[in-house]
Specification:
The complex is a heterodimer.
Chain A (H helix, E strand, L loop, with lengths): L1 H11 L1 E2 L5 E2 L5 H27 L9 H4 L2 H27 L2 H31 L8 H32 L8 H27 L2
Antiparallel strand pairs in A: 1-2
Helix pairs in contact in A: 2-6, 2-7, 4-5, 4-7, 5-6, 6-7
Chain B lengths: L1 H16 L28 H29 L12 H33 L13 H34 L6 H14 L15 H13 L1 H15 L8 H21 L4 H7 L3 H31 L5 H28 L15 H30 L41 H6 E3 L5 E3 L3 H4 L16 H18 L1 H20 L21 H12 L4
The chains are: A mainly alpha, B mainly alpha.
Chain lengths: 206, 539
């Protein structure tokens, strides 16, 4: 009986690499991030649907065709997408145990994210100058809320990256903690993928 | 994370309730339909408090839902496969998934409302071309799963109580689990039956009517299985069991009146009448509250180490049940007679007088029943030392929690048990031979753990979750009154995040670095699971 039980236990339980036993084999932190991202999908789903509903109602204000500067936004989108590459480099560096490279790429990712945010701030201010205030029309409210929310997500990601950098500088982010970077990476990739969707829906689809 | 979700919930609730003294409560009804809840028709700050308070408690619920989902998926004892979990755990798991996916939708709706009210956005401004149905759709996509979020845990509780007091295993365990999952899934496809009179078009009405009829099927499966569990059992009518049986009966009534809503023409007649009020009280009260009371009586000895008085419990139960039926059954009649909801008075001679009087009497009976429950807690607590100690297993239970001493020690299991089958604890006490005869193997006290382990590692306590949660009301007040305060709140929030993540941990391998901060607080099971690692040999 006891043998049977341990065989069962052996079958069902896998060790994750940190040595804790979890039933699925994925560490708790990583699984939590996946569940949270699933939840976040619905958040952006609802926001994007709302935008789709309101985007034609431009009222007296300027409409999307008149105001969007697609080359500019393409460049800032490219910057954001490149940050997905740098965070992968940060993860693999730490997995190899290369703490210095890890710091470099974490910093680069945070920097690229900040450039994207700066671009968004510039974009918003120039739109406002051109007469598209937050309260101008349904379209403007929807646009600022959707892209603003994405901006808040990117900013939160930058906060996480800075936390990782601080931990690294204090010597608390060694090779054994590579998974922490990987989890932040999951979040960062998610935010990027959402941006691809938003960029397509908001800027590219006429 | 446990601490964070608890304190967020507390501060969100406090924030919501400060609206009583800061200019009045929300005046939009519980679903706050726009444009009625817009700033034109509700100029006070009540709805702002309502929306922001709900956002904060929504964050709390999301954190806790993520936490519990991971706990169920990842922290099961060795041998505890998903299909050996108690039905209660299953139902709570389904509810967490509903929360994970329903809360972001209401979050968006509330954010849009707050933007509209405080910053002049135009999401719900009909003059700017808004579709007033947007709020209704977003609200009910959350709102209908929400009613299953309320009722499924009660179903789980009842599924634990009935087998224990029928002396039989649960009838059709896999059906019980899958019907719960089916309810969880289908709960997403019925939201628009709240909106049949909102002009959503005949195709939508037909589709949602069908879905509403279908969702009655898994619910019926559950009721059949509860009856099947009791059938031929040796039933003990404890207070917990009475509540459980009453749930089966009352929820059946609520379910049947619910199916009548799927007939769209009838629903058109019933919408916003007392019929609806009667219906949802039979589901939420008859399905939720009765189950929760049963759970309180059932697990009270496990949590506090003494039983509640069964004698007062009997009075409490019968008064609640009779008062509940007197209050809400007449509402069906009133509704069909045409009395609409949300009115505080009506003219004489409309034929409403008699049944309203019955409902009023019922409400008083119900109130007395509820007060008796509080009296029961007081009375039983005072006499707890005069009772014999309840021991680990006062009800001859089936599931693992009865293996622990009552009250449960802080570290819960001394040693994580290895699970072989459903109702593992029961089969450690009894054996069943081929003819179905039951014989006792061991007394509960012999099987139970002592609760005296000294070496179990508990997570180190931290003040940061409270501090972090306390920044939320500051942000809320800032949004309503003063943007400077808002900036201060966000700054404090950032300080708390950094403080929490960088806090030195006593545990060498236990530092979390994602946005949820420190995962040390996840669950004592985390630490308790560590010894099990050595028990499972490789290969």
């Amino acid at each position: 009986m006891a043998e049977h039980a341990t065989a069962l236990a052996d079958h069902d339980v896998h060790d994750d690499h940190e040595g804790h036993v979890t039933s699925t084999g994925i560490s708790n932190e990583k699984l939590a991030m996946w569940v949270f991202l699933g939840s976040d999908c619905l958040l952006f789903g609802a926001l994007i649907s709302t935008y789709m509903l309101v985007r034609r109602n431009v009222g007296d204000g300027p409409g999307p065709e008149e105001i969007f500067d697609i080359p500019f936004t393409s460049v800032s989108s490219f910057v954001l997408l490149m940050s997905s590459l740098t965070i992968v480099l940060a993860i693999t560096a730490l997995q190899r145990g290369d703490v210095a490279r890890n710091r470099l790429w974490l910093g680069a990712t945070a920097m690229l994210g900040s450039v994207f945010i700066a671009g968004q701030v510039y974009e918003f201010t120039s739109f406002v100058r051109e007469g598209l205030g937050y309260t101008t029309s349904q379209f403007s409210s929807g646009f600022y809320t959707l892209t603003g929310f994405h901006g808040v997500h990117v900013s939160l990601g930058i906060v996480m990256l800075v936390v990782l950098l601080v931990l690294s500088l204090r010597g608390q982010l060694g090779q054994d903690k590579a998974e922490a970077v990987e989890i932040v990476g999951l979040y960062w990739h998610f935010v990027d993928i959402v941006w691809i969707l938003i960029f397509a829906v908001v800027y590219l689809i006429p | 994370m446990n601490a964070l979700s608890l304190w967020l919930f507390v501060f969100g609730g406090l924030f919501l309730n400060t609206s009583w003294i800061l200019g009045g409560a929300a005046d939009g009804g519980w679903f706050s339909y726009v444009p009625n809840a817009g700033v034109d028709y509700s100029p006070g700050h009540g709805i702002d408090f309502f929306a922001i308070g709900l956002l904060i408690t929504g964050i709390a619920s999301t954190v806790s839902a993520v936490n519990l989902t991971v706990t169920v998926l990842n922290m099961r004892a060795p041998g505890m496969t998903l299909m050996k979990m108690p039905v209660f755990t299953w139902m709570v798991f389904v509810v967490q998934l509903l929360l994970v996916f329903a809360l972001p939708v209401i979050t968006v709706a509330l954010i849009l409302l707050v933007c509209d009210r405080l910053f002049g956005a135009n999401f719900f401004d009909v003059t700017a071309g808004a579709d007033p149905l947007l709020w209704q759709h977003l609200f009910w996509i959350f709102g209908h799963p929400e009613v299953y979020i309320i009722v499924l845990p009660a179903f789980g509780i009842v599924s634990e109580i009935i087998p224990v007091f029928s002396r039989k295993p649960i009838f059709g365990y896999p059906f019980m689990v899958f019907s719960g999952i089916a309810i969880g899934f289908m709960g997403w496809g019925v939201w628009a039956h709240h909106m049949f009179v909102s002009g959503i078009g005949p195709v939508s009405v037909a589709a949602f009517s069908l879905a509403t009829m279908f969702i009655a099927v898994p619910t019926g499966v559950k009721i059949l299985n509860w009856l099947g569990t009791m059938w031929g059992g040796r039933i003990e009518f404890t207070t917990a069991m009475k509540y459980a049986i009453s749930l089966v009966a009352m929820f059946t009534i609520g379910g049947l009146s619910g199916v009548s809503h799927s007939i769209a023409p009838a629903d058109t007649q019933q919408t916003d009448t007392y019929y609806i009020v009667g219906h949802f009280h039979y589901t939420i009260f008859g399905g939720g509250v009765l189950g929760f009371f049963g759970g309180l009586y059932f697990w009270w000895p496990k949590v506090f180490g003494y039983k509640l008085s069964e004698k007062i419990g009997g009075w409490n139960f019968w008064l609640v049940l009779i008062g509940f039926n007197l209050t809400f059954a007449p509402m069906h009649v009133l509704g069909l007679q045409g009395m609409s909801r949300r009115i505080y008075t009506y003219d004489e001679g409309l034929g409403f007088d008699m049944w309203n009087m019955v409902a009023t009497i019922g409400a008083y009976v119900l109130a007395v029943g509820m007060l008796l429950f509080l009296w029961n807690i007081y009375w039983s607590t005072k006499r707890r030392h005069q009772q014999p100690p309840v021991g680990p297993d006062p009800w001859d239970g089936r599931s693992l929690e009865w293996m622990l001493p009552s009250p449960v020690p802080e570290h819960n299991f001394d040693e994580v048990p290895t699970i072989e089958r459903l109702d593992d604890f029961w089969y450690r006490k009894y054996s069943v031979d081929a003819d179905g005869r039951v014989s006792r193997l061991a007394a509960a006290e012999e099987v139970a753990q002592k609760g005296d382990a000294q070496n179990v590692h508990l997570p180190s306590p931290s003040y940061w979750p409270i501090a972090l949660s306390a920044t939320m009301p500051i942000i809320g007040y800032g949004l309503i009154y003063n943007l400077g305060l808002l900036a201060l709140g966000i700054l404090a929030l950032l300080v708390c995040i950094f403080g929490w993540v960088l806090e030195p941990s006593t545990e060498p391998g236990g530092h979390g670095h994602d946005d949820h901060g420190d995962h040390d607080g996840d669950s004592p099971a985390d630490a308790a699971a560590a010894p099990a690692n050595e028990e499972a040999p490789v290969g």
